[in-house]
């Protein structure tokens, strides 16, 4: 009996030990296997994520302006026609005289880049905008109209000479989604020469995008509409351009053409000073 018990205990111990070794080995094996498998899975996910993102990001950027096309449409038309301005011309509270004195200084430590864009020009307001950009060591992209560029060739040349760049905003600002492919091509061909195109009103569709991509042109929309076209008051323009939704990579939409842009010009020094204080540099869209 006792021998049997010793034997069975011995066998039990051996079985337990063997089981332990098997468990350790298999865990180790699985660990080794997973060390090879999981990182590659993560790696592929990490690789896939950016590949998946652009279409959705593109879809969202396409959706954003399209979400309020009527607003945008009427607003840009309103920008060209008299529009009741809000009686708000009080100076913005965001920028103090101290901030203004910093405008000539180099920007502080980088938090990132905010891209500044102006649409519908050039116009008589463009030189004043270039003055502010020069004084603040900033640049911007001007999405110009072909017919206005013909009216203001000096301003157009000055933009490039100052280190800013020019995008194509078509010849005379039609809604491209309502045009036939041939008309879209005509609008692009008679707009400013640039590899970047901003469709008027931010309205786009597959036909527009197919034509752009076939010609090697890049569609550039925006992430923040300062609504300067509606002349909401300098303070409101500054607030929308420097608010919590601004982050590295934001594209600000402003206007140097299409109507009275005095509020835009008044707001611009405060916008750039505030963004620089927040640690941003203000730049043109690269590659346009
Ligand atoms: Zn426009």
List the helices and strands and how they pair.
Layout: H1 2-67, H2 69-80, H3 97-101, E1 112-119, H4 126-135, E2 141-144, H5 146-151, H6 153-161, E3 165-168, H7 181-189, E4 196-197, H8 206-214, E5 218-219, E6 224-225, H9 234-242, E7 251-255, H10 262-277, E8 280-283
Parallel strand pairs: 1-2, 1-7, 1-8, 2-3, 4-5, 6-7
The chain binds zinc ion (ZN).
Zinc ion binds near residues 76, 119, 120, 169 and 173.
Please characterize this protein's 3D structure:
Helices cover 52% and strands 11% of the residues. It contains ten helices and eight strands. The radius of gyration is 29 Å and the shape is globular. α4 packs parallel to α10. The protein has a domain at 112-283: Glycoside hydrolase/deacetylase (TIM Barrel, Alpha-Beta Barrel). The strands form two sheets. Strands 1, 2, 3, 6, 7 and 8 form a six-stranded parallel beta sheet that branches. The chain has a two-stranded parallel sheet with strand order 4-5. It is an alpha/beta fold and 288 residues long. The N and C termini lie far apart (93 Å). The protein has helices at 2-67, 69-80, 97-101, 126-135, 146-151, 153-161, 181-189, 206-214, 234-242, 262-277; strands spanning 112-119, 141-144, 165-168, 196-197, 218-219, 224-225, 251-255, 280-283. The structure holds zinc ion. Zinc ion (ZN) binds next to loops.
């Amino acid at each position: 009996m006792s021998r049997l018990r010793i034997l069975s205990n011995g066998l039990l111990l051996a079985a337990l030990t063997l089981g332990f070794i098997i468990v350790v080995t298999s865990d180790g094996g699985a660990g080794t296997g997973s060390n090879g498998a999981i990182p590659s899975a993560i790696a592929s996910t990490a690789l896939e994520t950016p590949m998946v993102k652009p279409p959705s990001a593109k879809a969202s950027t396409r959706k954003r302006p399209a979400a309020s096309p009527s607003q945008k449409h009427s607003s840009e038309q309103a920008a060209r026609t008299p529009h009741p301005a809000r009686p708000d011309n009080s100076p913005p509270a965001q920028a103090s005289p101290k901030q203004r004195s910093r405008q000539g200084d180099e920007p502080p430590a980088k938090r990132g880049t905010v891209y500044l864009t102006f649409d519908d020009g050039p116009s008589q307001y463009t030189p004043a905008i270039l003055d502010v950009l020069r004084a603040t060591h900033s640049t911007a992209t001007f999405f110009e109209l072909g017919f206005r560029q013909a009216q203001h060739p000096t301003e157009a040349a000055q933009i490039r000479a100052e280190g800013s760049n020019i995008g194509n905003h078509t010849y005379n600002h039609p809604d491209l989604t309502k045009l036939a492919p041939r008309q879209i091509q005509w609008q692009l061909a008679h707009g400013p020469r640039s590899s970047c195109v901003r469709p008027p009103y931010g309205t786009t569709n597959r036909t527009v995008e197919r034509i752009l991509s076939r010609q090697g042109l890049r569609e550039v929309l925006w992430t923040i509409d300062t609504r300067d076209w509606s002349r909401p008051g300098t303070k409101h323009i500054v607030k929308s351009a420097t608010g919590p939704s601004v982050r590295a990579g934001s594209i600000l939409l402003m206007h140097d053409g299409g109507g009275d842009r005095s509020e835009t010009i008044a707001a611009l020094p405060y916008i750039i000073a505030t963004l620089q204080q927040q640690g941003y540099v203000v730049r043109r869209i690269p590659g346009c």
